[in-house]
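Subject: Predicted fold for Pectinesterase, 306 residues

User T.R. writes:
Posting the sequence so we have a shared reference for the thread.
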Amino acid sequence: MARIVVDWRGSGDFRTVQEAVMAAPEHSEERTVIEIRKGLYEEKIIVPDSRKSISFIGESREGTVLVSSDYANMPGPDGQKLGNERSASTFVYADDFYAERLTFSNQAGLYKGQAVALAVSGDRAVFRDVCIRGNQDTLYTPGQGRQYYENCFIEGTVDFIFGSATAVFEGCELHSIRRHNGYVTAAATTEEQPYGYVFINCKLTGAAPEHTVSLGRPWKPYAKVVFIDSWMDRHIRPEGWDNWRDTERERTATFAEYGSKGPGARPAERASWAKKLGRPEAGGIKAAALRGSDGWDPAMTVTSNA
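User M.O. replies:
I've generated the C-alpha cells; pasting them so everyone works from the same file.
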C-alpha cells in the first residue's frame, strides 16, 4: 500500500491534494493512501478514472477541509457557464475511492444557486465520517455506480443530494439550512435500477422553517428513494414528497418510508401516491442495493490504519 502525505505547510510530500492524486500510479490495483494534514485546501480536485483505488484520509473531520467556491452559472475559462459538473469542488471519476475524516465543501454562498461540493461517478465509492457542506446541489451522484456513506454529515438547501447512482446512507445526518422550500433529494434513478437512494438510521435536522422541506422530488420519472428507521425534525413537510409539478411521476417514482420517527414523521399525512413499505431488513436492503454482480461489500474496502 503506497502512502503520500499532503501538508499545505510544506512538511509532507506535496502541498496540494491534486498533486498527490496525480502522483498515484495509473490503472493500479494497489491502493494509494493520501494522508491529508489539517488545513484549508482551497483547490479544485479531480480524481480521474485512471487513478483508481485512492484513499483520502484526513486528520480530523472538521480540521481537514477541501474547498472551492465555483458555481454552475459562473463563466469558465472557455467563457461558457461551468454547469453543475464543472462547479464541483471535488469530482471523483475513479472506481474504488475511499474517504475518511475530512470535509468536502463549496463556499459559493446561499444565493449563487447550484454549486456542487462533491461529485462522484466512480463505482464502489465509500465515505466514512466525512462532512459534505454546501447549499443547492451539494452532493452530486451521476452515473449508475454504487456508493456508501457511513456516519457522514451532509448539508444543503435545494436538491442537496441528487443524481442517478445507487447510494446507501447509514447513520448520516442530513441538515437543511436557512431556507424554506427545500428538498433533501432529487433522484434520477433509471427504470432499470432496482435501487436509488437508501437511507438507514439517518437523522434529518434543519434550520429551515417548520414544514418547508420535502424528503425528495423526482428529477427523473423513475426516481427511487427510501428512508428506513430515520428521525425527522419538524422542518419536514407533512406530505413528505413532491411530484416536481408532474402528476405522471407520481405513478412512476418509488418514494417510501418505514419506521420514521420524530416530529417530522407523520405517516398519516404523507402524499397519497407514496409507496407503502413493509417491514424491511435494513442489512438486507443495504446488501441488495450494493452487492451488484461482483458481490461488493463496502465493509471489505481496504482502508488506512492512520
